[in-house]
């Protein structure tokens, strides 16, 4: 049977995320290589723009407006819609390595009994089976895995492919929502807007990261300033998050966010294996640390041996001067 790959798209501020665009490109390439088809799913209270954006990468997109506003968690509703598309013939499901993507993948594993291939940095066919490459041990090794069967769920890391649009936009099919989420959806009782979170870590071109070396929550004022001057977003290591200096939403690493910015600037970050697992795909890595043996020096393109509270203000002053103030 010809494969049909389903991409579960994610929406941020009304638009398709960059990671979802990458996964859509990957699915289109896999469909062409495997003699199959690919379909995208966009679930949002205002899905029009994101659905049109996904249609630039896939020949068919299913658009669903669930209703109910933001009061119900997204993942159980997205999983219910994905299950309907599996009933229509989807043989493989691709989602992002995000909190919501992991939730959807887990729900579908339980509902379908399909195998899960997680944290893919590359995906290809081996006969009729999907083979996933994933980096482990902070990039020191690469695993190749597959599932024993014709179906699979795959979660994909940022940067697996570069988004590439089709010659012509695909068709968009609007559907009414499923009668109920796959499992009872948690009700959102309250929302707190986090300062500095206007641009997600996963989407940012520049990420400035504070580690244990910033010394406390007040140290992140410098990190925030550098991020603003560079047009980037503030991130943190697990040590800084565990210390309560910055919210968990800013954590980068194996148990946090996975980023692949054009520039990663680490201030007082030692670069433990778990942190490197979330940032090793960065195009350019600059690190400032007083310890010449800090593990991050092994992967840094530029390693500055010095006190971040001396280097950081000097860098900020230079950036302000270049901006004319």
Jot down its keywords:
Rossmann fold, 325 residues, 5-stranded parallel beta sheet, globular, alpha/beta
Radius of gyration: 21 Å
CATH class identity of the largest domain: Alpha Beta
Number of helices: 8
Q: Determine the CATH superfamily of the largest domain.
A: HUPs
Uncertain segments of ≥5 residues (pLDDT<50)?
A: none
CATH 2nd-level architecture of the largest domain: 3-Layer(aba) Sandwich
What is the CA-CA span between the terminal residues? 63 Å
Number of strands: 17
How much helix, percentage-wise, in residues?
25-40%
Order of helices and strands: EEEHEHEHEHEEEEEEEHEHEHEEH
Q: What strand line-up does the widest sheet have?
A: 7-11-6-1-4-5-12
CATH topology of the largest domain: the name is: Rossmann fold
Query: Structural class given helices, strands, pairing?
Result: alpha/beta
Report the sheet with the most strands, covering strand number, pairing sense and barrel closure.
Answer: 7 strands, parallel
Shape: globular
Mean pLDDT over all positions: 91
Count of all domains: 2
Share of β-strand residues: 25-35%
Concise overview:
With 325 residues, the chain is of the alpha/beta class. It is 27% helix and 26% strand. The strands form 4 sheets. Strands 7-11-6-1-4-5-12 form a 7-stranded parallel beta sheet, with helices on both faces.
Any overview of this molecule?
With 325 residues, the chain is α/β, with parallel strands linked by helices. Helix 3 (74-87) packs across helix 4 (99-112). It contains 8 helices and 17 strands. The protein has a 7-stranded parallel β-sheet, sandwiched between helices. Strands 14-13-15-16-17 form a 5-stranded parallel β-sheet. A 3-stranded antiparallel β-sheet has the order 8-9-10. Helices cover 27% and strands 26% of the residues. The protein has 2 domains: 4-175, Rossmann fold (3-Layer(aba) Sandwich); 206-322, 3-Layer(aba) Sandwich (Rossmann fold), CATH 3.40.50.1220.
